[in-house]
Records
---
Amino acid sequence: PSIKHLIQEKSGSFLIPASRIAFVQDDNPLYHAFLILTKVKYSKIPVLDKDKKVVGLLSLAMITDKMLTNEEISTAPLDQLKVKDVMQTKFDKINFVETTLEAQLHLLINNAFLPVVDDRGVFQGLLTRREWIKAFNYVTHTYDKHYKS
Amino acid sequence: PSIKHLIQEKSGSFLIPASRIAFVQDDNPLYHAFLILTKVKYSKIPVLDKDKKVVGLLSLAMITDKMLTNEEISTAPLDQLKVKDVMQTKFDKINFVETTLEAQLHLLINNAFLPVVDDRGVFQGLLTRREWIKAFNYVTHTYDKHYKS
Ligand SMILES: Nc1ncnc2c1ncn2[C@@H]1O[C@@H]2COP(=O)(O)O[C@H]3[C@@H](O)[C@H](n4cnc5c(N)ncnc54)O[C@@H]3COP(=O)(O)O[C@H]2[C@H]1O
Ligand SMILES: Nc1ncnc2c1ncn2[C@@H]1O[C@@H]2COP(=O)(O)O[C@H]3[C@@H](O)[C@H](n4cnc5c(N)ncnc54)O[C@@H]3COP(=O)(O)O[C@H]2[C@H]1O
């Protein structure tokens, strides 16, 4: 069996389901998102709209960037702006049904995680580098043990 | 050849040298670190002391956590505190000479990156998940092409 087949067997368990993912909504005030990101400590999280579709990604740096004014560091933007005003709107996401394993791995070269959506764009969960590396670690131990040369 | 050997050939190029790494010093005021982290956009960076040894890791969340007071979000801590007052001091780091490839991969399961140091603890650069995944991606293409079954 090829490496690809060994990983394919394990890949069903890669998805971290939506229920375990920290997120914010696009219409939340920045104040709320600042608190969420400070407390959950994940560096970048998905942004969902009212229909649970993934519409952006958000990190603390996108928020603190608005706090840097000419004079000083200001907290005023936290009350004035919403998540949708600062979030990253250009990002990779995948539909498990349509995306091959090779395509997933290729995207994980430049993305620490990939939001997974269904055919209607509704958020299903995250595919993370950690899950992939765990599987690779397992596979190379298994493979090298049986096929050592 | 085993997967391990194929990766070992490429692993010389994994280290991102210290000259290309964004960092802060442990005695910098938080104000400075806040600006650095907001501008470079890396989510977590190494903290070095005067002797260029890695003494901690720093993210924006460690700084914003100090800004959450009972009343409101305050910028006062940015002037009052230093990087060493909030940085993460418990973290994994590796010495390339001493660490096997398996040990590196195992550590990358729970670490997005690993600071690399020499025998005196002086910062050499970072080993990142991105570099590992690029190598794995290359190796599986090569391996499966030659040893398909
Ligand atoms: N609370 C925690 N418990 C245990 N380990 C933790 C952790 N927070 C971070 N890590 C470790 O640090 C890595 C980088 O986390 P980061 O938050 O920068 O980057 C994360 C974050 O942006 C996002 N992410 C992961 N899990 C998430 C969740 N439950 N909710 C929201 N975003 C998540 O996916 C990125 C990659 O995650 P990955 O698991 O591959 O890699 C994680 C994981 O290995
Ligand atoms: N300016 C940029 N240009 C291109 N791609 C970018 C980028 N900033 C982030 N990325 C992509 O996002 C991933 C996660 O970045 P993050 O800053 O959360 O997490 C980073 C950051 O905490 C640290 N890191 C990487 N390069 C660094 C550098 N030059 N200076 C300081 N820290 C660095 O190592 C972690 C893992 O990095 P890795 O390369 O595996 O994975 C990176 C990379 O694939």
Note: Chain A has a mean pLDDT of 89.
---
Amino acid sequence: SLKNNLQKAFKFFRSKGRLSEQDIKEGLREIRVALLEADVNYKIVKEVIKRVEEQARSQKVIESLTPAEQIITILYNELVAILGDAVPLNIVPNETNLIMLVGLQGNGKTTTAAKLAYFLKNQGKKALLIPFDFKRPAAKEQLVALAEKNGLEVFRDTLIEPVPTLEKALSYMQKNGIQIAIIDTAGRKEIDEEMMRELSDVYAKFKFSDVLFVSDSTIGQGALKVAKGFSEIVDLTGGIFTKFDSSAKGGAILSFRYVTGKPIKFVGTGEKITDLEVFYPDRVISRIVG
Amino acid sequence: RKILKRKTDSTIDDIEEFLIENNFGVEFTEHFLEELKENRVKDPVGFLRKKIEDILDSVDTSLSLDGRPIVFLFVGTNGSGKTTSIAKVAYFFRNQGKKVLLIAGDTFRAAAIEQLTKWADKLNVPIVKQQLGSDPASVVFDGLESALKKKVDVVLIDSAGRVETKKNLMNELSKLQRVIEKKIGRSANEVLLVLDAYTGQNAVEQVEVFTQAVNVTGIVLTKLDGSSSGGIIVPIIERYKIPVKFIGVGEGIGDLKLFDKEFYINQLM
Ligand SMILES: Nc1nc2c(ncn2[C@@H]2O[C@H](COP(=O)(O)OP(=O)(O)OP(=O)(O)O)[C@@H](O)[C@H]2O)c(=O)[nH]1
Ligand SMILES: Nc1nc2c(ncn2[C@@H]2O[C@H](COP(=O)(O)OP(=O)(O)OP(=O)(O)O)[C@@H](O)[C@H]2O)c(=O)[nH]1
Ligand SMILES: [Mg+2]
Ligand SMILES: [Mg+2]
């Protein structure tokens, strides 16, 4: 496991006292394996190891009495630097705030939309859920069911076209004094030109306070390409990583952040409406690196 | 995704990058690179292709179709494509003239029953369901009872998505398997683990835990139409000897293939 691999690396470093070139190489190899097994992308691991190695080779580390601690700290700082801090939703009071959720099929958008509405409700902010998946069987029913079960407002009068639906929802919001809406889009592949065109079409016609990439934490090396693909079609404002309650290490989170530069705002930790947590980089790093 | 150049154009680093980026994992990759060295391989790409072919050939991908009704149970993690795969498999069997019955075994997730019902209506096949929150074992029992009465040819059972870390949900699956065996007097023809092709190393843990809960006989590898090659199944097949029986290549009813070795390797390499 990742934790075992990194503990191996740290044990190795600590047992060495002063570090030789060979020691550094060997320890970094263990770290590299650990990151790859945590699903961090190959190219990113290469970059991180390179940076750690450069700093580890500095005189102050080699001559240090606690080189192991130094290297561990260097690695930790590199990961923290990549991940960045949690960033809140871009909600501006007295304005219309549209939050759009996008991502691959089955990654947790509909469930997360409901969780976000619930999260905002607990902050005293009312959010309208807008079913925006016109393709998947019973997609609208799923969001309506989640809304009804949890006392959330959902826009029921949906047509079957994205742009007219959103226009109608906006006028509904105006009439009813609702300032926040969460748009649950259909799952789509970043390589599906038609579906990505539908997305960019909607993105171009309305103003969004947040466009959040929702991704399963269990995704592997492909996370890099998927995140890049979505970020090239719409200007993402952040990511939400679901299924943090699985045993996946979540290296995809690092890949997302690295390739898009966008912050991670939340993690999904289960199927209940309350299973949404604000992103804490420390928690993610300790999960990735044990 | 990473594509390999033929024969001598690919260096060891290219091979390593290819294997890692296609989710073969560190263990498989390091072992393979060792093999390349030990065998002083001149055509590493050809050697890799042969190794993958051998692994895929080492398992029997044919479907178990004995007995009536043929019973398939679909299990897997959340959002992997179980419900959609059931619709596709129903279409597959219906087109062979078989009488198919669906069992809405996901009694937990919002609108799960509605989703499968819509597929049943599209396919014009019967579906057995109870209300949300009912015991899945009870729906499975009732469904099989109905299937036996109606002398249906194929029964496809949906189950709720679940993560491998939830022991109680794994126990629930074991119970479903027992209910099936008790009702039809034998084990299900297939217990299919539905696996998303984008999944990384967690797929190994999914297989590890699901196979402890139920007797997984095959894998449905979904979303292979996406940008992921599903390379993770190669180390999984090598280690667990569980065959991939179906491949999902889209969201439509016809987007299903019986596992095809050539198709799989060509989209991978
Ligand atoms: N264990 C767990 N399951 C989750 C989490 N988030 C969502 N799910 C489950 O994942 C499955 C897929 O969730 P959906 O919300 O339907 O995913 P989606 O992205 O809307 O799917 P499409 O609309 O088909 O693209 C459901 O079974 C959810 O209950 C999470 O954080 N943990
Ligand atoms: N592109 C593509 N999408 C797929 C494929 N199989 C399933 N999907 C999509 O993946 C999403 C999830 O599919 P479901 O069938 O609801 O998955 P599930 O495993 O039943 O989900 P839960 O019951 O919530 O655990 C849907 O949007 C499907 O259309 C596939 O082979 N290719
Ligand atoms: Mg959805
Ligand atoms: Mg389902």
Note: Chain A touches chain B through 44 residues (CB under 8 Å).
---
Amino acid sequence: MLEQLQESLGKIVKTLRSEGKITENNIRDTLRSVRRSLLEADVNYKVVKEFIDNVQAKAIGITVTKSLTPGRQVVKIFNDELTRLLGAKQYHLKTASMPPTVILLAGLQGCGKTTFAAKLALMLKNQNRKPLLVSVDVYRPAAMQQLEILGKQIGVPVFSDESKVVKRATEAVEFARKQHLDTVIVDTAGRLHIDKEMMKELDALKKNLKPQNILFVADGMTGQDAVNTAASFNDQLGFDGIILTKMDSDTRGGAALSIVSVTGKPIMYIGTGEKPENIEAFHPDRIANRILG
Amino acid sequence: LGKYFRIDTRLLSTIEDTLIASDLGVELTDILIDRLKKIDRRESANLAEILKTEIKSLINSEISINETKTKPRVILCVGVNGTGKTTSIGKLAYRFRTQGKRVMLVAGDTFRAAAYEQLKIWAERSGAEFLGNPKGKDPSSVAFDAIKSALVKGHDTVMIDTAGRLHTKSNLMDELAKIKRVIAKQIPDAPHDIWLVLDANTGQNGIVQAQEFLKTVGVTGIILSKLDGTAKGGAVLAIHHKLSIPIRYLGVGEQIDDLVEFDPGNFVDALLK
Ligand SMILES: Nc1nc2c(ncn2[C@@H]2O[C@H](COP(=O)(O)OP(=O)(O)OP(=O)(O)O)[C@@H](O)[C@H]2O)c(=O)[nH]1
Ligand SMILES: Nc1nc2c(ncn2[C@@H]2O[C@H](COP(=O)(O)OP(=O)(O)OP(=O)(O)O)[C@@H](O)[C@H]2O)c(=O)[nH]1
Ligand SMILES: [Mg+2]
Ligand SMILES: [Mg+2]
């Protein structure tokens, strides 16, 4: 026990004496454990590699603060750099010059789009806006009913006419215009980025609605594949902002870094529960802390 | 083994990336890479096959899947939000119906908007009977009524859908434990199966989910959904390795027949493609 203590003290003293600067050698172990931690947090391995290389390049040669070891110092640099990356860009909902503003939601199956549509609608209603909800999910059993029930719960109207996807959405916009409702939130069916027909449907919605805002909804517990789905949705459809859901779980949320890194698009809001009130602004520093563990 | 006879480190590094990219996680990947490190370099041409064999060896097909002969067989479906529980129950109902079973589906999700209506449609599609309470608040009482009815009517299989719930919410996990107790009071040894539905897109948190559900109610099998996407679902291997829970079925789409029985060989082949 005493020998171990002497050995580690010796190492620290040696490191501090050696140069007081961060070198490849004195942070090697720290880099390895940061890498492991980021992978365990579900950050995509390519994103991890790139991130570590960039931070390492930034860190080498930096003088170590008196109260820290090189290892501790580099972890602080990681935290700052991760916070910076996650918060680098911000996106605020654009409003249409001629109302209504259209917000289109898209994402994989089960990630929380319908629930988020209601959250967004309630948020806008509390900001004295006049939102209209419409679901164009004509596939999932009782999907349109689900949104109708949510709409009733939060006191927001839900457009429920017409059964063809694109027509239903455009009629909803027309309805909003006539009724002087200023925002239309379009909830779409969950789909795979590799489903050509369904991605075509999204494209048709985009072309016909010309939405001012397209938001990509992603499950906060998504693993390595987050880069593939996000990049594919961004390449095929293009989105303005990201919504990360189910962050009330104990998922580390590495998908946040993966998605931001590979698309360059910002995270706007996070979902923190099943109720319409459970929407929070995205705080890059908090998520950075959580990802680094 | 001498350094010159070991597998090339760059090759090992590529394999490591593949395993991590498939969501096997750092721990299980390290275990597999350590095994590969012991292999003679002259075997490198066979590396793909060796890797497949190693991964397959992790899957214990010996875990007894004891399909109860009692009637009704009660299956409880559990899992976190949005993984595909309700849809999987619909697919399973269809499968059991093609096996000539009389199935009852129970709307145990009394919380989420349109959960009742969603399962009702799946019951209609699969030819199963449906039991639920559209105004119902308490899943335990819905389960109670369903089992009572199934015992009288003589159904072969009763599948109980539950609301998605995060394993971190203790009140919701308590609710699940209560549903199980109520079922057990009516039929000893029931529920005969508790299947955890996991989303193939889920990363390492899937392991925590499995641990917590196992601890709270027990899990006798895993259904891995959404394998028709590009996610590999490797976290299920880490779960199986750690907790020995059998992998029962795979969800491969949104249609009623998009369900296959888990086959280790096929799964590993798809994993490494
Ligand atoms: N705990 C938690 N649950 C959430 C959150 N967002 C959504 N959910 C739950 O996740 C499940 C799926 O949500 P939905 O809104 O139906 O997901 P979806 O993307 O519309 O699903 P599809 O339309 O089938 O693709 C439901 O049980 C929701 O209550 C969140 O932020 N936290
Ligand atoms: N592509 C694909 N989608 C699936 C699969 N299984 C389920 N889904 C879809 O995933 C979404 C969520 O499915 P649900 O059955 O509602 O999931 P759940 O676990 O019951 O959700 P909650 O009850 O809200 O927790 C739906 O859009 C389903 O169609 C699958 O194997 N493949
Ligand atoms: Mg939906
Ligand atoms: Mg459900």
Note: The pocket of guanosine-5'-triphosphate (ligand 1) is lined by residues A 107, 109-115, 137, 140, 143, 189-190, 245-246, 248, 271-274, 278; B 81-82, 112, 164, 166 (CB under 6 Å).
---
Amino acid sequence: LRLKEIEIDNFKSFGKRTLVPFLPGFTTISGPNGSGKSNIIDSILFALGLSSSRTMRAERLPDLINNLSGKKEAQATIKFTDDKEIEIEVTRKIKVKDNGYTSTYYMDGRTCTLTEVHDKLLSYNISPHGYNVVMQGDVTSIISMSLNERRKIIDELA
Amino acid sequence: LRLKEIEIDNFKSFGKRTLVPFLPGFTTISGPNGSGKSNIIDSILFALGLSSSRTMRAERLPDLINNLSGKKEAQATIKFTDDKEIEIEVTRKIKVKDNGYTSTYYMDGRTCTLTEVHDKLLSYNISPHGYNVVMQGDVTSIISMSLNERRKIIDELA
Amino acid sequence: KKINFFETFQGVDKYFQEIFHELSFGHGELVLENPEDPFGGGLIIRARPRDKKMQRLEAMSGGEKSLTALSFMFALQRYSPAPFYAFDEVDMFLDSINAERLAQMIKKQSIHAQFVVVSLRRHMLEKSDQAIGVTLRTDGFTQIIGVQNMQKKKDEEPELMTA
Amino acid sequence: KKINFFETFQGVDKYFQEIFHELSFGHGELVLENPEDPFGGGLIIRARPRDKKMQRLEAMSGGEKSLTALSFMFALQRYSPAPFYAFDEVDMFLDSINAERLAQMIKKQSIHAQFVVVSLRRHMLEKSDQAIGVTLRTDGFTQIIGVQNMQKKKDEEPELMTA
Ligand SMILES: Nc1ncnc2c1ncn2[C@@H]1O[C@H](COP(=O)(O)OP(=O)(O)OP(=O)(O)O)[C@@H](O)[C@H]1O
Ligand SMILES: Nc1ncnc2c1ncn2[C@@H]1O[C@H](COP(=O)(O)OP(=O)(O)OP(=O)(O)O)[C@@H](O)[C@H]1O
Ligand SMILES: [Mg+2]
Ligand SMILES: [Mg+2]
């Protein structure tokens, strides 16, 4: 299984619907400071429910909606493939309403729960406790965390 | 007043007596990871008593003595000049004895107290609370400190 | 619970030693503060970069710390492999020699799993199969400005690769 | 005490706005959480990089955060100037444009005070008056391997300056 494409719409600095295609193997993303590189990584964490809004540098979930476009919703879709017959598509959409906001997950077009998304990912060994997504600054935090916090990383893996 | 030269002897990775000369203006120091660049900055903080052993990445002061040379003492001398008639030399020496260690300051060859060193530096506006020495990682710590800690920086300057 | 922990600890430690040696030609090891009762203590990371004495992570230089922390992270990943990895500027503290070695290692691993690496360094960009360029337009929106297939590029125009 | 604090706060804020504009062509400001009783609250750093909305430090990108934090540090230094400054890899998070602007600024300031900057980046090395090379010998001791007077070098061999 691998990432085939990410579709980002009105999430963070992606005010326009944007497709990010991926080849198999080794892909680099580069560009000036503040141009939106880390926001692409955040869109993976957001769509797959792998982290809280705090880790995506937002106070509350609605802060992830682009603040320039004026639209009240944002979504990100992650498309996986195994280059043979399996295709999986996970989407997350947040909408601001008068009395709050809603956050909905979809798998292959149908609504589903976060647990269903996590179960599906777990079967391919993608888990919120795995270190397969390393955010900007994570290396520094491993260095500065306490010895006990470091041991807890092994506990979670066990 | 400016830095004219630093003499480092058996301090951290400087197992041999080493002279580091400085010109006026803009000087860069570069070299591979782990080669001793930050240790030069640490030698300034050490000799002028601007910080604790913890900020110099050592558990206790004797850990600053080179652990390969077998010698039981370390010293660093900072030579200042104003390129006219003023020359100031501040030295700090630490020695390990059977029952502990001694740390001694010298100014222009005479022993003195840390307060005397700080008073002399203060007259040239070099102070432990000023941000004139920025260690590796200080930029990150300004970003991650709390709003109150950040305000306290202004308190100390006032 | 304890048996599980020890099995995981020993597995991660074995990989940590392998990877630290691959990245820095030195010797690294994970040590439990309290081996009898692991949950009562923490995890110490010790490493001996080539030509140096064994030291704790806390006493190393910025670049040595980040190389050691990266080795620990890769060891966790090797113990529990995932189909894709996303890294955000993990090569920031490294000098050119270490950045080059890290890029080599990722290139080698990218045969078994997909790697998406955000980086500003030449060493990573040159070794990648695909390079995505990102910019911010004046209206404040992020735009993808180019997706180059580096392998094709290398075959056609070798001299374009300088940083 | 309160009067002293306000005088310092306003001085540092004025310099912060100047320096942030010089480094990123945007607008920055320091804001007290509780202006009536400053000691009862913290200090918020807000900045608007060029072409963007005003935002708090916490929501910025890695590079924008470090440029903002650097501007704050320089503002403290400008308010209470010292005869020499020592910086250890402060340009690490910056892309080439920002690293270039920072090196320019330090070069300009180095007429008034002495700057000693540890850096791995080409932008800093090229602009310095003097470059000191450091290495670790196989016996584990640090050695100074070269002290080049860059101004002299520029006059003699201009083409050596490429990174
Ligand atoms: N909800 C939002 N609406 C619009 N823009 C946003 C939103 N949230 C974040 N941003 C913008 O995204 C930018 C940060 O982007 P990002 O962190 O991806 O940059 P980067 O390319 O990783 O930069 P660096 O190289 O400095 O790490 C911020 O400057 C901010 O203006
Ligand atoms: N007491 C000591 N005796 C011998 N060596 C020491 C001592 N204390 C520290 N060191 C060595 O100094 C090295 C760190 O040097 P330093 O932090 O100056 O590196 P650096 O050039 O700044 O590297 P980087 O680019 O990674 O920041 C450590 O690897 C350690 O081995
Ligand atoms: Mg980033
Ligand atoms: Mg260093």
Note: Chain D has five helices and seven strands.
